[in-house]
Each structure stands twice: as C-alpha cells, then as structure tokens.
Write a structure and sequence with these properties.
globular, 233 residues, alpha/beta, 5-stranded parallel beta sheet, 7 strands, single chain
Length: 233
C-alpha cells in the first residue's frame, strides 16, 4: 500500500540517506529531499546528491514520478561554532568526554528542526532520516530516544502532526546493504557503491569493493565491515 501523503527525506548523498530515500519512494506517493551545507569537509557529498537522484529516476521507473523537488539549506553556523573534525582540519580522534571529535553538537537536532520547518511549508507530514543507534559512532543525537523526544517537541512547537521515520535505527551496515537490495536489487546496491559518499574526508580517488573512501576513517571502517558481512557467502 502506497501512502498518499508527502514525505521529506533528509538526503546527504551517503549510503544511509540514499537507502532511506529508496525506502520512502517505495512507500509514499510523493517524496521531496533536503540536504544541508554546514561547511563539512566532505562537501563532495553535495555534488553526489543530484547524481544519485538522477540515477534513481533513470534506473527505477516505478519511483520516477514520485520523486519531487530537492532543497538545500545553509546551516553554516555549525562551522562557525567549530570544534569538530567534520568542519575543521583536525585529526580524527576520541575526545576527553568520550565522544569522537567528528561529533557535531546539535547537528541532527538542527537538521530535523530545519527539515520540519521546510516540511511545514511544503505540506509534508512525514520526515525520514538515516539516524541509527546500532552503528551510531557514539553520536547521542542518533539515538532513538533523541528522535522520539524531538518528534514530540516539533509537534508541540509547530502544532503539526509530524511523523519522524528512522528505517535504519535498529539495523547495522550489513543489514542496510541488504535493505537496499530488497528495495532496488543489485542496481540500487551498485548505485550506492559507485555514487554515495560516506568517507569523512570525502575521498573519491580510492575505489574499494565497498565504494570510494580513504579506507581509514571511522565511516569508511563501518562501511567496509558492513559490506564484508553483507557480501560474505
């Protein structure tokens, strides 16, 4: 059954958000996307977004008429706040507080709040994000409790019944690859391997069996191990 309501997908151009976009296209009659520029070092992901959208409409005719407008919002204030390896030339490491220095405080909270404001104007009730507590890399704003609390706050603050969907919340990277295969077969998995950007450094020069990336950052490590488990006999 296809839901006739509109969905807005938080779409970064990475593996998780691309899988979530396919998940939404399978379920909703109309799907729009939103990306965020926040001064991220891996800004190459912003270049990947239109390529992925174009490939989805070209390769999957069942989704072509469902994919609607793309939006890009500027949240450069995250770079102005600074202090993270995601927006500054820092060596990726664990901080004294037990959080990795790739954690951008408030990022997902800002992303979902901005997306909800956009959804309010676009008459979209469903927000879809790739937050995941299983492979969350130590980021507290990826936890299920955070998303549930934020849904309550957004609904109260905007007097609108938003529904926040997190299809990947309880699955790991191997299961995310498997979900993509279920949604779009080998063609979708191949698209994810070739076009999506997961690497924190935005490396598009080194091609591995799991896609492009530096191969050493935590995001590459998660993706590589997940693909190995997914593709194992």
């Amino acid at each position: 059954m296809v839901n006739a309501e509109k969905a807005l997908v938080l779409f970064s151009g990475g593996q998780d958000s691309t899988t979530c976009l396919a998940w939404a296209l399978e379920r909703f009659a109309r799907v729009e996307t939103v990306g965020f520029f926040y001064g991220q070092r891996h800004a190459v992901e912003m270049d990947a977004r239109p390529k992925i959208r174009a490939s989805l409409t070209a390769q999957f005719p069942q989704w072509r008429d469902r994919l609607g407008t793309d939006h890009v919002l500027n949240l450069d204030l995250l770079r102005e706040i600074g202090g993270t390896a995601m927006t500054e030339e820092r060596t990726i490491a664990m901080g004294a507080d037990g959080l990795p220095n790739t954690f951008v405080p408030g990022r997902n909270i800002l992303f979902l709040s901005a997306a909800a404001a956009l959804a309010f104007r676009r008459d979209a009730r469903h927000l879809v994000g790739g937050m995941c507590e299983t492979d969350y890399s130590g980021y507290p704003d990826c936890r299920d409790d955070t998303i549930k609390a934020l849904q309550v706050a957004l609904n109260l603050g905007m007097d609108r019944r938003f529904v926040l969907h997190t299809p990947l919340m309880w699955i790991d990277k191997a299961a995310t690859f498997a979900l993509a295969a279920t949604l779009g077969g080998k063609a979708l998995v191949d698209l994810i391997l070739e076009e999506t950007v997961t690497c924190y450094l935005g490396d598009r020069t080194h091609r591995h069996d799991w896609g492009y990336g530096c191969g050493t950052c935590p995001a590459c490590d998660l993706r590589a191990k997940g693909y190995a488990r997914y593709s194992a006999p």
